[in-house]
Amino acid sequence: MEAPKYPMPTGLYAIPHDRLDLRPDSEVDHDILHPKIVTNEKNIWFFWHSGFLTMHPCSQRTVRAWHRRFSKAGWAVRLNNRQPFSPLNVEIFLDTRSEEVFPRSFIDGTIGGDYPLQHMSDLVRFPLLLKYGGVYADVGLTHIGDIDRAWSDMIDNPASPLEIFSYNCGTVNERFLSNYFLMSKRYNALFERAHKLLLKLWAADGGKTSTEGMHASPLLNGTELLGSDLTYGAEGQTGCVIPLCKARMLLADYIIQVQVMSLVMGLVDKDDGWDGPDYCAKHVYAIEYIEGSQLINPNTKWNGLRAFELMSLQLPKEGETESSPEQKLAQEIVEECLRRIFAFKLAHGMILKMYNETLGSLWRKHVSSDCIPGTYVGYLKHAMLFWCPKTLPLRVEFRAIAPFKRGSLI
C-alpha cells in the first residue's frame, strides 16, 4: 500500500488507517467472495453476471476499494452473480422464479437485445434494495465521499425526513434519478412503485425480451426523455456515430429504470395516497450528476482518449519545480474532482455508440493503466482510498412541481 507523497487538496482529510482495510488484495478478495449473511441494512450491492473473478482488473480494484473504505464501518460489499453454486448467486438473496420479483425473460434466461447483461443487472437493483436496503452501485463507480456519513445523517436518522440518496441527471425541474447509485432503507415507497411499473413494461405484449421501444409505452406518457443535454458531449467529437435524437431514444430504452422512476416521481395518485412531486421535495436527496460524479468529462470535452492520456501522465518527480501545461491541467482536474465530486463514474455501455472510446473503456483495454503509482490516475486512486471530503455534496433543491400524470400508476 506504499505510495508516492501526493499533495492533499484543501477541503479533504486523511482517513485514519484503522478505519481502512489495508490487507493484501488476496485477503480482501476472500472476504468479497465469501460474504457474511445479511444481518442489517448496511449492504453495498453490485452485480456482475459471471462473478468477481471474471471481472476486468480495474473493476475488481473498484469493488475492493469500496470494501477497503467502508467495511470497518459495518458495510458488507456483496457482488451478486448468476453462477451456479456461488454463495453470491442472486437466487440466494431473491426469489428468481417469481414474476412478482422478475420478468419472465429474466426467469427463463431469455433476455436479449444489445445489452442483455446490463438489463439483468438493472433488474436486480430494486428487488435487492426493497428486500434488504442499503446501496446499489455500478461496478464502474468509485467513491470519494463518505457513504457511511450520508447513511447515518440522512437515511438511517430517525430525525431526518430523507429516504433516498442518489444523483439527478437533469436540472432542478427535471426528475431523472440515476440508477448507477441508489441508497435507501428497505420497502421504499418510490422504489416499490417504480419496480411495479418496470415489471409491467417488461410484461407488455406477452413478455419482452429486451427494453427496445419501452420508452414509447403509454404507461410512460408525460415523462420527458432522458438526455436533453447530450448535445454538449457531441460537439467536435469524431466518435459520435448516431444522431442525437435517436441517441435520446436509445438512452431512454437502455436506462429504462430512470424513465420509470421519473414517471413515479411525477405521479399523483390520490386513490393510492401517492404524491410523487411532494415526495421528491421532502424525501429525496439528489446530487447533480455531472458535478457529483462525472466532472472529468466536461473538463476533457467528453474525449475519453484525452482523459486517458492526461491521467496517464507522470507527476513531476521529487525536486522538480516545473510542470508542463499538460501536467498542470491533469493536476487541476484531479484536485477539482477530489474537492467537488462524491463519486467517480466510468461509462462503458451504450455511451460507446456515441463515442468510440471512454476513459473507462480504455482502462479496461490497457490492463493496469488505472493504477500506476506516480501518475495522475495513481494520485486519484490513492486519494479515493486514503482521503475524504470534509463535507457532503450539495443537494438539488427539488420543489413540488406540477405532476406529469394524475391517476393510477398502471
From TrEMBL:
Q: Identify the Gene3D superfamilies for this entry.
A: 3.90.550.20
The GO terms describing molecular function are: glycosyltransferase activity
UniProt cross-references to Pfam families, sorted A to Z = Caps_synth (PF05704)
Q: Which domain of life is it from?
A: Eukaryota
Protein name per UniProt: Capsule polysaccharide biosynthesis protein
Q: Which organism is it from?
A: Cladonia borealis
